[in-house]
Amino acid sequence: MTNVIKFPANAAGTAKPRAVQKKEVLTALGISSPTLYRLIKAGLFPKPMKIGAKMSRWLETDVTDYLEKVSADRVAI
Questions:
Q1: Is there a contact between 4 and 64 (Cβ–Cβ < 8 Å)?
Q2: DSSP 8-24
Q3: How far apart are the C-alpha atoms of 55 and 45, rounded to whole Å?
Q4: Is 63:29 a contact under the CB 8 Å cutoff?
């Protein structure tokens, strides 16, 4: 899958979480902005973190965890 977000490795070789913009979330999930907010309202996707008065970001791990969960649910059917 080409939309999966990859963590950059730090000096210790472990993945560092980063905050991603809404457009990156939408691209990774392949959904529209209204669909993203419907998922959040339904409790299916995490709310964004408030970085400032007008800035929100999601943790990259939240996006990848959601994709893994949806993928696992799909295989389980």
A1: yes
A2: PB-TTSPBPP-EE-HHH
A3: 18
A4: yes
Q: What is the pLDDT of residues 52-61, one digit of tens each?
A: 999 999 999 9
Torsion of CA 43, 49, 52, 57, to 10 degrees: -100
Q: How far apart are CA 38 and CA 44, in angstroms?
A: 9
- Percent of residues, the chain, with pLDDT higher than 90: 66
Strands (E), 1-77: 19-20, 49-52, 55-59
Span 9-35, pLDDT tens digits: 555 556 677 899 999 999 999 999 999
DSSP label at 75?
A: H
